[in-house]
């Protein structure tokens, strides 16, 4: 299956377990991979035949900045749900959320979570 990749999307938000994270906020970096059939836009070169990259960025931004969660795992799931809502042609999504300012007991380091989800079947 074909894929669209959006990497290093940076958003400022207030996620984390500690009170300081909720009060001060920090930067989160998001990578998205969206799997779908891109054969039609590959043939037609028509904008309407593909997924709008900007709409994916806006969906991710709304998911990251419009919620307050403790865990990166939950944040990744919220982003995945938002991406599926953004365009029905997306069959699978992989979300990687990095937290460069995570409170770790070392001088530098990055924490990240990556999930892959298939579009839920409609019942």
From TrEMBL:
SMART domains recorded: FolB
Cellular component, GO, one term: cytoplasm
Alphabetized Gene3D superfamilies for the sequence: 3.30.1130.10
Key word Cytoplasm present: no
Keyword Lyase tagged: yes
Gene Ontology process terms (BP): folic acid biosynthetic process; tetrahydrofolate biosynthetic process
Key words, A-Z: Folate biosynthesis, Lyase
Pathway per the UniProt entry: Cofactor biosynthesis; tetrahydrofolate biosynthesis; 2-amino-4-hydroxy-6-hydroxymethyl-7,8-dihydropteridine diphosphate from 7,8-dihydroneopterin triphosphate: step 3/4
Molecular function, one GO term: dihydroneopterin aldolase activity
Enzyme Commission number(s) of this protein: 4.1.2.25
InterPro entries: Dihydroneopterin_aldolase, FolB_dom, GTP-CH-I_C/QueF
Chemical reaction(s) catalysed: 7,8-dihydroneopterin = 6-hydroxymethyl-7,8-dihydropterin + glycolaldehyde
Domain Dihydroneopterin aldolase/epimerase: 4-117
Protein family per UniProt: Belongs to the DHNA family.
Function in brief: Catalyzes the conversion of 7,8-dihydroneopterin to 6-hydroxymethyl-7,8-dihydropterin.
Name the record gives this protein: 7,8-dihydroneopterin aldolase
């Amino acid at each position: 299956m074909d894929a669209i990749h959006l990497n290093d999307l940076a958003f400022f938000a207030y996620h984390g377990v500690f009170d300081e994270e909720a009060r001060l906020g920090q930067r989160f970096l998001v990578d998205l991979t969206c799997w779908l059939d891109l054969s039609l836009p590959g043939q037609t070169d028509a904008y309407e035949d593909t997924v709008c990259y900007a709409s994916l960025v806006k969906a991710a931004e709304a998911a990251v900045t419009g919620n307050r969660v403790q865990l990166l795992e939950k944040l990744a799931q919220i982003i995945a749900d938002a991406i599926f809502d953004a365009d029905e042609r997306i069959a699978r999504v992989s979300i990687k959320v990095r937290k460069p300012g995570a409170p770790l007991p070392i001088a530098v380091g990055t924490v990240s979570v990556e999930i892959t989800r298939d579009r839920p079947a409609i019942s």
